[in-house]
Write a structure and sequence with these properties.
The protein has 391 residues and is an alpha+beta fold. The protein folds into three domains: 112 residues, PAS domain (Beta-Lactamase, 2-Layer Sandwich), CATH 3.30.450; 67 residues, Signal transduction histidine kinase, dimerisation/phosphotransfer (DHp) domain (Helix Hairpins), CATH 1.10.287.130; 187 residues, 2-Layer Sandwich (Heat Shock Protein 90), CATH 3.30.565. Helices cover 40% and strands 22% of the residues. The chain starts with 14 loop residues before the first helix and ends in a 30-residue tail after the last strand. The structure holds adenosine-5'-diphosphate (ADP) and magnesium ion.
């Protein structure tokens, strides 16, 4: 039975309403034409009698017939029952060669002169992007659970082992040390998850201020000093004075520190890591600052270079775990760079080394306007630690 949603079409319209309807008619067509949602009206014979541009772009018609059985069955159901039908369908193939699309479909039966609907209006929304985001979120939750499960499982086993070895102090000490190790892995993972969630938060640049790039670089090198010492890798940095960017200093330092940590983790002992910052111009001649971290490490194969910025992606999971990696570092770096209206890029040669560069918009400070912004270049800075030396 057709559900009548508006006035009974059988009764003649009031004169004022009729006048309004005649001026609204073209207006309604204009609105339908301009809608982002696809609109298709099919008649009782299942022929499309109205198709707006958005629906045409979805490529769902074969001449004037609905090309997909799933879509046709929604239209038929609305025609037969006279009820609204809502569903989400996947269009598996795409004749225009695009990604498969997911459509949220609402079928609204149109009033007829008899008991049956005269046709159906199909409202179509492309929900492919929402679908993709849902899948990304599901994957992320699955990955987090998996990453947490490993150390938590290890902790449980180690606690049992300690119980069993209660009479052997040497074993107890060994297991306790491993508990400590797993505990700190867990703390690191949770810490990085929190940092990732912070940099994905609503405020892209909390407490943004003008920041001296030199202090960002110095802070990052300082934070990685211990790791460099332990790996016998020398880290040097060179940064001109008066190079300024706008943003959150702690986050920018954390981004650079992540790159330096990686440079140390994925290089052999006795190699060198160099951090440099320089003023430059981008493709559109806008002033930028490039902060680069160069290592002489294992390098990254070309096929991996995009994927390493994904959360939890590691080229060699075993090596990453051995160095205490969580697979989140570069995802954090990428988020911080984009939040600061910049980007991160990588150059690499397998077996020779890599250079990661964070490019940020450069700010010309009033205070430093009397001085050149990227000259004179300071010599490489020596950090007072044996393994962190001047270049
Ligand atoms: N400087 C580098 N040299 C070689 N490989 C690197 C370097 N930096 C990152 N990678 C690769 O990218 C992966 C992702 O890096 P990241 O997100 O920091 O996670 P991880 O915690 O594993 O270090 C690493 O596991 C490693 O395979
Ligand atoms: Mg890392």
């Amino acid at each position: 039975m057709l559900r009548r949603r508006r006035e009974d079409p059988g009764s003649p319209p009031a004169p004022a309403a009729a006048a309004a309807a005649s001026t609204q008619q073209p207006l309604a067509s204009l609105v339908v034409e301009a809608l982002d949602h696809g609109v298709v009206v099919v008649d009782r014979d299942e022929r499309a009698v109205l198709v707006n541009p958005a629906a045409r772009a979805m490529d769902i018609l074969d001449v004037d017939k609905l090309a997909f059985p799933a879509l046709l069955s929604i239209a038929r159901k609305a025609l037969d029952t006279g009820e609204h039908v809502t569903d989400t369908i996947d269009l598996p193939i795409d004749r225009l060669g695009r990604e498969p699309i997911a459509l949220a479909v609402t079928a609204v039966p149109l009033p007829g002169t008899d008991e049956r609907a005269s046709g159906v209006c199909l409202l179509l929304a492309d929900v492919s992007e929402q679908r993709r985001l849902e899948a990304v979120r599901r994957d992320f939750v699955a990955n987090v659970s998996h990453e947490l499960k490993t150390p938590v499982g290890a902790l449980t086993l180690l606690a049992e082992a300690i119980q069993d070895a209660a009479d052997e102090p040497a074993m107890v000490a060994r297991f306790a040390a491993r508990i400590q190790h797993e505990g700190s892995r867990l703390a690191r993972l949770v810490g990085e998850l929190m940092e990732l969630s912070r940099v994905q938060g609503a405020d892209p640049m909390p407490g943004a201020a003008e920041v001296d790039v030199r202090s960002i670089v110095a802070e990052a090198v300082e934070r990685t000093r211990l790791a460099a010492e332990q790996a016998s890798i020398s880290v040097s940095y060179a940064c001109p004075r008066n190079l300024r960017v706008r943003g959150n200093e702690a986050q920018l330092a954390s981004a650079v520190a992540n790159l330096v940590e990686n440079a140390i983790a994925y290089s052999g002992s006795g190699t060198r890591v160099a951090v440099t910052a320089a003023g430059a111009s981008d493709d559109e001649s806008r002033p930028v600052v490039d902060i680069s971290v160069t290592d002489q490490g294992i390098g990254i194969a070309e096929a991996e270079r995009d994927r390493i910025f994904e959360r939890f992606y590691r080229v060699d999971p075993a090596r990453s775990r051995a160095t205490g990696g969580t697979g989140l570092g570069l995802a954090i770096v990428k988020n911080i760079a984009t939040n600061h209206l910049g980007a991160v890029s990588v150059w690499s040669a397998v077996g020779s080394g890599s250079t990661f560069t964070i490019r940020l918009p450069r700010v010309h400070s009033d205070r430093s306007s009397s001085e050149p912004t990227d000259e004179p270049s300071e010599p490489a800075v020596s950090v007072p630690a044996t393994s962190v030396e001047e270049e």
